[in-house]
Write a structure and sequence with these properties.
Blueprint lengths: L2 E5 L4 E6 L4 H6 L1 E5 L7 E6 L20 E6 L4 E13 L14 E8 L5 E10 L2
Length: 128
C-alpha cells in the first residue's frame, strides 16, 4: 500500500496499491504512472467501475471544486480540487504527461461500462 484516497462527494475511501494487476484492481485503487503519490507532477490513479457503486464507479458525478484527499506512506495528507471532468478513448493517454507548473496534480481514470471510453478527472493541489 502506497497511500489512501478519500473523495467525500462520492463517499469513497480506499487504499492505493503500487502495482497494477488484475487482483489489485479488484480490491483497491492503483498507482498507474507519474512521479508518485503526493509528489510534484501528475500522478495517475486507476480504479474499477463496478456496477454496484463501489471503487471509481461514480467518478462522472464529480464536479469542479470537489475535493480529493490523498494520504501517502509518510502520512502526509494532500488536498486536491477537481478542475476538469471528461471522457476519453481507452487508448488515449495524452493527458497523463502534462506540465503541472511545478504543482502536485492527480488524474483519476476508470472505464465506462463498455470499456471503450474512460471517465477522466483532473485535480490540482490546494492549500486548506
Amino acid at each position: 500500500m502506497v497511500g489512501t484516497i478519500s473523495i467525500p462527494a462520492i463517499s469513497i475511501e480506499y487504499p492505493i496499491l503500487e502495482k497494477v494487476t488484475t487482483k489489485s484492481l479488484k480490491v483497491a485503487i492503483v498507482y498507474l504512472t507519474g512521479p508518485g503519490i503526493n509528489k510534484v507532477g501528475n500522478t495517475v490513479l486507476q480504479g474499477h467501475n463496478y456496477r454496484n457503486g463501489t471503487m471509481f464507479s461514480n467518478l462522472e458525478k464529480l464536479k469542479n471544486g470537489d475535493k480529493i484527499y490523498i494520504t501517502d506512506e509518510s502520512k502526509t495528507k494532500v488536498t486536491y480540487e477537481v478542475y476538469d471532468n471528461f471522457s476519453a478513448e481507452a487508448t488515449d493517454t495524452s493527458f497523463y504527461n502534462r506540465d503541472t507548473a511545478g504543482l502536485r496534480e492527480v488524474t483519476l481514470s476508470t472505464c465506462t461500462n463498455d470499456s471503450v471510453i474512460r471517465t477522466i478527472i483532473l485535480a490540482k493541489e490546494v492549500k486548506e
